[in-house]
Amino acid sequence: MKTKTIAALLLAGLAAAGCMNRQTDDTQMQTLRQTRDWDKTFPQSDKVRHTEITFRNRFGITLAADLYMPRDAAGPLPAVAVSGPFGAVKEQASGLYAQTLAERGFLALAFDPSFTGESGGEPRNVASPDFATEDFSAAVDFLSTFEGADPGRIAIVGICGWGGFALNAAAVDTRIRATVASTMYDISRCTANGYFDAGDSDDARHALRRQLAAQRTEDFRRGDYARAGGVVDPLPDDAPQFVRDYHAYYKTPRGYHVRSLNSNEGWNRTSALAFLNAPILAYAGEIRSAVLLVHGEKAHSRYFSEAAFARLRGEGKELLIVPGANHTDLYDNLRAIPFDRIEAFLRENLE
């Protein structure tokens, strides 16, 4: 196969995927309002071409994404879809990961999940494990048909809560050759059991179900959805260290973004209902493709990755603990995120 310049692949691929003209009718893709200016929490790289694109998921929701392509590279290229953290937008950590991987020679796509950011879907600010998992597969749909990408070399990267959804996607979507879950949360486990499984009891879950059921009634009566609140601000004096770490990212110029749920009013409260009886890692042990779990040594969430790793079977499974790193260090700390190992892992498994 003759190689093509990345600029030619970009134009041809976007045209083939129907992404050059976003003015499509309702039977195709919803017209989204996407910000033209660079409004990321990280600086733009001059080594990468950046393009705004849209694609649809299986439920008919149009997703907004940023496509990062290495300048002057020849393709088709190995491709990576990136999302997360839970309650973040593509202008935050996922965009940084995607741009950095593009600098290293990958075609990388950072997308806003359904109902959040610049993506479509109503009502807004809803989280559900089936939609979250589907969004990864929808990104694989796009990359599998994009001329600039090699359909046989596609990987996904999930950060924080989207690390768990990435594992769920890898368990069901055999097109995914490799999966990286960075500073992973198991949102189902955390919702049903509380942090560190401190609320793991039938009575505690029943009380939460009653509370959320009452909230549904109140939301319906009001015709609106109560929000759970983002990262607490100002911090209480007794805030645990991991909450302080979240505040240092989401509530300061380091990581604040106007469209980020965690930076602002948070998810709809009733979003928690979907996770109470939908364990997303139920079939993680049946993943046959390669998986790299990356977690900080000092992260409060480290137990999620360790438990997930214990479920994984077969070859190509790795748990990498980053010395000294906390949970949010792996959002944007370029000295802590092990991009050399992530790149090597992807190349090893996307040959």
Task: Write the topology of this structure.
Layout: E1 4-5, H1 6-16, E2 48-56, E3 62-70, E4 74-75, E5 77-83, H2 93-103, E6 107-111, H3 129-145, E7 149-159, H4 161-172, E8 178-182, H5 187-193, H6 202-222, H7 241-250, H8 273-276, E9 290-296, H9 302-311, E10 317-322, H10 329-332, H11 339-349
Parallel strand pairs: 5-6, 5-7, 7-8, 8-9, 9-10
Antiparallel strand pairs: 1-4, 2-3, 3-6
What does this structure look like?
With 351 residues, the protein is of the alpha/beta class. It folds into two domains: 4-186 and 280-349, 3-Layer(aba) Sandwich (Rossmann fold); 200-270, Arc Repressor Mutant, subunit A (Orthogonal Bundle). It is 34% helix and 18% strand. The chain is built from eleven helices and ten strands. An eight-stranded mixed beta sheet has the order 2-3-6-5-7-8-9-10, sandwiched between helices. It is globular, with a radius of gyration of 19 Å. The protein starts with a strand and ends with a helix.
